[in-house]
């Protein structure tokens, strides 16, 4: 052992799985043998779902490498890019979610797993800016501190698909301020702002003060921002208000509301907009009404009225299975 070597108390420990001699794997002297050997090893995976997923993953990855003739330099650049994506992540910044978002994967996974249930509010992408520390807000309270943007009041009811009210539903909601930043994007963040947690009342009603959302660029100072520049794509999201709603017996709803008229609605950088989630804001020019609703400076405000329709868990699961079966029959792929 050299002087600069690090001594250890134990030898390196294998994982205990024996070499698969029964497979008689040929030496991978040719490109196609690398793929076929790996596929043979995938056959040993005990979990059927894992086996199917990894078989498809390996097949498509190797096909992509063969089809594009990826160079060693390009592949190393890819590894370094993904490394930087991971290094950019912090407890309040999720660059990997952002990467998934801009590649359309988040929206695709959401669409496959949350097909629309008749009458229910459609889902949308979670995004990378959700946090667990939203403060509790009373009915009519504010999720944004004063001066964070133009006044907006959000109200409606939480209902089941049969029209019955859903009381005590937990509503998490968050948005940017009028500069297009989430609170987590500010250095030295001391408390949660422009986000809150409230509950529907016994009639399913909810209401809270917020600020008018604006369109904004997703973070461009990291590897995902560089990727969009290389692809010639803008990094803008249309104005929106995030909502996550949970109630016992109902499918958890992750969605967002998009005020009409934004120029980026049809080219959202993360593919989150759905037609049923585009809403109209009403202009209320009534100083007394503004003060009555708790806006300290009075004046005018925007009113967003929206009933949140939750799908019972059984209905949601039936819709998901039916959608999966239909896709499987069309594509010939197993579910």
Automatic annotation (TrEMBL):
Residues 127-311 form the Intradiol ring-cleavage dioxygenases domain. It comes from the Eukaryota. The keyword Metal-binding applies. Keywords: Dioxygenase, Iron, Metal-binding, Oxidoreductase. InterPro entries: Catechol_dOase_N, Intradiol_dOase_C, Intradiol_dOase_core, Intradiol_RC_Dioxygenase. Residues 1-20 are annotated as: Disordered. Its cofactor is Fe(3+). GO terms for molecular function: catechol 1,2-dioxygenase activity; ferric iron binding. Residues 47-120 form the Catechol dioxygenase N-terminal domain. GO terms for biological process: catechol-containing compound metabolic process. Belongs to the intradiol ring-cleavage dioxygenase family. This is Intradiol ring-cleavage dioxygenases domain-containing protein. It comes from Steccherinum ochraceum.
């Amino acid at each position: 052992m050299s002087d600069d070597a690090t001594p250890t108390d134990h030898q390196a420990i294998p994982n205990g799985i024996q070499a698969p001699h029964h497979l008689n794997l040929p030496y991978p002297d040719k490109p196609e043998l690398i793929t076929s050997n790996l596929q043979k090893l995938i056959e040993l995976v005990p979990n059927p779902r894992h086996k199917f997923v990894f078989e498809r993953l390996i097949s498509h990855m190797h096909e992509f490498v063969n089809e594009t003739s990826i160079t060693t330099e390009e592949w190393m650049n890819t590894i370094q890019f993904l490394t930087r994506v991971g290094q950019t992540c912090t407890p309040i910044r999720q660059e990997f979610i952002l990467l998934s978002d801009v590649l359309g994967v988040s929206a695709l996974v959401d669409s496959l797993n949350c097909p629309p249930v008749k009458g229910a509010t459609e889902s949308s992408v979670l995004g990378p800016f959700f946090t667990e520390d939203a403060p509790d807000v009373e009915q009519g309270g504010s999720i944004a501190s004063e001066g964070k943007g133009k006044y907006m009041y959000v109200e409606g009811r939480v209902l089941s698909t049969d029209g019955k009210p859903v009381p005590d539903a937990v509503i998490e909601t968050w948005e940017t301020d009028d500069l297009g930043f989430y609170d987590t994007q500010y250095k030295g963040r001391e408390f949660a702002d422009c986000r809150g947690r409230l509950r529907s009342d016994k009639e399913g009603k909810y209401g809270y003060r917020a600020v008018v959302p604006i369109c904004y660029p997703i973070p461009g100072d990291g590897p995902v921002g560089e990727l969009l520049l290389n692809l010639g794509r803008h990094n803008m999201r249309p104005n929106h208000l995030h909502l996550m709603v949970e109630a016992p017996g109902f499918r958890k709803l992750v969605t967002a509301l998009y005020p009409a008229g934004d120029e980026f609605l049809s080219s959202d950088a993360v593919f989150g907009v759905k037609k049923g989630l585009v809403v109209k804001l009403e202009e209320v020019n009534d100083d007394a009404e503004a003060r009555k609703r708790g806006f300290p400076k009075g004046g005018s405000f925007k009113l967003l009225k929206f009933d949140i329709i939750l799908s019972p868990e059984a209905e949601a699961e039936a819709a998901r299975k039916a959608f999966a079966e239909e896709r499987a029959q069309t594509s010939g792929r197993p579910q």
